[in-house]
Amino acid sequence: MGYSFITDATDTNSPFLIRDYLYKELSPILKQHRPIIFICIGTDRSTGDSLGPLVGEKLKYMLRHDVFVYGNLENPVHAKNLDEVLNDIRSKFNNPFIIAIDACLSDIQNVGKIFIEKKPLFPGMAVHKNLPPVGHLSIVGVVNISGNLEFMVLQNTRLYTVMTIADAISRGIYHCILKTVGGKKNLLDNQIEGIISK
């Protein structure tokens, strides 16, 4: 499968590689003042499926013009409310560029890796849920191995693995937006950086 971008979350350079890739993709969109929406999909009720809400939690204070984040630990975006969230976005934003973020399962050699593709995400595939495709760009983190009983695999995923991936993705996104929008870091930015680094 030909992914546009792959990095290992344990690589200390992974946030900067994500930043540079997203900067290349998002700069033209932000220059058009087209809203960019990050939809962080998942639920905090399952460790393996909590990647999206954790990324959203780390980014929820990222106050930037034309950049919006849906999905965090308090208000997750999941199978039961995904349609409602998508309808809300369509009603509020004109021609938004949507980036979907979710956890996935794969082969053992891919655990801990982050994949970015220039195509929609199909959430819920690992647990055989039929949900609508989401986004123009997709970011997925491999949290565990695929196989039988995917639901149980997600329930028994190491939180450390999920947190490592969430840290890399959120830091990459944050620094991409900071680089794209420009401006000096202020007190709020320093507070955000502290939250993301935790």
From TrEMBL:
Which InterPro entries does this entry report, sorted A to Z? Pept_HybD-like_dom_sf (IPR023430), YyaC (IPR009665)
Q: Which GO terms describe its biological process?
A: proteolysis
Keyword Hydrolase (UniProt): yes
MF GO annotations: peptidase activity
According to its UniProt record, what is one Pfam family this protein matches? DUF1256
Q: Which UniProt keywords apply?
A: Hydrolase, Protease
What's the name of the protein? Spore protease YyaC
Q: Which organism is it from?
A: Clostridium polyendosporum
